User: Which sequence fits this backbone?
């Protein structure tokens, strides 16, 4: 059994009459990467700051490894928690070189500091750039300096606040992969805040979907996407088609015919069908194409069924789907049903 690097239990934070964090509870295993995913104002950044010790909770407990750092009268100062922080704007010192910025995080480091800076430059892929100033670096390079500075003192846990928000869309996917590889090599437990579901699903080992200050669902990216606990989670984590249906055990009848359910249900329901769960076939239910978007590796197609139901479909077909053309649509897997 893996050691727990972080335990959060019943965490609450209020600002006057506003409850920003409401009974947040989760466990994070050593070495795992957790995404706190949610819309603006859902409490994810406040949760991060509570873990860091930058905010004081009104209730609840926090353990870092086996150390109780907050709650029941205990309070460990932020500087004594061995927590690394990477801020949204990176917070690099503009008058210090790359190596000096990294070394700044080693004030209380007991090992050989020059060797540690050299090691961190290698880990983040910035060998040879140690003398450059922050303004001479790209956004992705600045982010890696901030990451190296936070990792240098070997923190127990690393916290990242919207780490990719300052990068343009073309760089994000590349940098995400680089950051994941760096965190894996460093073997550091990490939590990052994001509102981008693609970012959360592709980078994290675990995802906590937050809404109105509480955790709506906690699980692996696969669980969050394929087994959302509610319609709200399903709609927030990826595109979701909901189709009215009548369930009878492990099947449900809808406008697309009889479909298989993952779990037994009865009565009026709404079935969740992800865009990629459809397939286009001449044997399917007739649908009229409204629009299509081609991405190379796949395409999104918007269609309308005879009863007025609108669906979004993803297909890897290279066929051209022109508006007003007719296609056949069917479902190729078992689906989840939610109360209507």
Assistant:
């Amino acid at each position: 059994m893996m050691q727990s690097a972080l335990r959060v239990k019943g965490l609450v934070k209020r600002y006057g009459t506003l409850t920003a964090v409401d009974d947040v509870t989760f466990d994070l295993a050593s070495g795992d990467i957790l995404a706190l995913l949610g819309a603006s104002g859902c409490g994810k950044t406040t949760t991060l700051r509570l873990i860091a010790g930058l905010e004081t909770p009104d209730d609840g407990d926090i353990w870092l490894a086996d150390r109780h750092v907050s709650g029941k009268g205990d309070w460990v100062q932020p500087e004594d928690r061995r927590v690394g922080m990477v801020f949204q704007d990176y917070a690099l010192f503009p008058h210090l070189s790359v190596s000096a910025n990294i070394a700044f995080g080693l004030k209380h480091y007991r090992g050989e500091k020059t060797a540690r800076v050299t090691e961190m430059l290698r880990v983040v892929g910035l060998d040879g750039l140690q003398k450059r100033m922050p303004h001479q670096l790209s956004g992705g390079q600045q982010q890696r300096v901030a990451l190296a500075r936070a990792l240098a003192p070997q923190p127990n846990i690393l916290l990242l606040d919207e780490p990719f928000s300052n990068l343009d869309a073309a760089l994000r996917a590349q940098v995400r992969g680089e950051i994941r590889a760096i965190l894996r090599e460093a073997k550091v437990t990490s939590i990052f805040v994001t509102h981008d579901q693609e970012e959360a699903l592709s980078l994290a080992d675990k995802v906590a979907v937050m809404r109105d200050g509480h955790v709506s669902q906690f699980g692996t990216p696969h669980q969050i996407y394929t087994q959302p606990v509610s319609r709200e989670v399903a709609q927030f984590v990826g595109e979701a088609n909901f189709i009215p249906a009548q369930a009878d055990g492990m099947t449900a009848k809808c406008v697309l015919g009889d479909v298989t359910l993952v779990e037994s249900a009865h009565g009026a329901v709404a079935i969740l069908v992800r865009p990629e769960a459809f397939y286009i076939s001449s044997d399917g239910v007739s649908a009229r194409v409204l629009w299509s978007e081609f991405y190379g590796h796949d395409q999104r197609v918007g269609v309308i069924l005879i009863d007025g139901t609108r669906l979004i479909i993803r297909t890897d077909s290279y066929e051209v789907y022109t508006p007003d053309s007719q296609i056949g649509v069917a479902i190729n897997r078992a689906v989840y049903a939610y109360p209507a």
In short: Residues 241-339 form a domain with the OB fold (Dihydrolipoamide Acetyltransferase, E2P) fold (CATH 2.40.50.140).
